[in-house]
Amino acid sequence: MEIRRTIAVTVLNEHGVLSRISGLFSGRGYNIESLTVAPILDSNLSRITIATKGDNKVLEQIIKQLHKLIPVLKVLENEQMIEQESLLVKFGLESNLSEIHTIFNAFNGRILEVNDKCAIFVACDTHARINTLLNALKIHKPKDITRSGILAIETSN
Prior knowledge:
The strands form two sheets. A four-stranded antiparallel beta sheet has the order 2-3-1-4, covered by helices on one side. Strands 6-7-5-8 form a four-stranded antiparallel beta sheet. By secondary structure, the chain is α+β, with helices and mostly antiparallel strands. Strand 2 and strand 3 (about 45-55) form a beta hairpin. Helices cover about 30% and strands about 45% of the residues. The protein is elongated and about 55 Å long.
């Protein structure tokens, strides 16, 4: 049975690190569903957040392999983190913007911008709730959709 897992990896912020981590996944046939990378404030470190799927054996293997990579300092999994995902959605002005606004409000969203051609909405919520929001928006025929990938932070410390 496939399980969705979010893994946050703290690494030295140096060239080639992302390539080595993505190579670990591709070399073993593991899929990366979402990938975000950003430097950690006031340090020479970065956090790489990876969403992937696999059975328990595959996920255990991924974690073990990540621990073996030289620039990796720390590996965290779902239970140790809280995660969020952002979503930008563009609609034409002919859409029912008040109804769309009501839907976005239910998912921690708001109107980001309105101009003479379109309205852009933003929401930040869990991966599952972002998927639910996207399903609710299908009837309004969005013109464009962009997802951020999952962001995660450790809940302890």
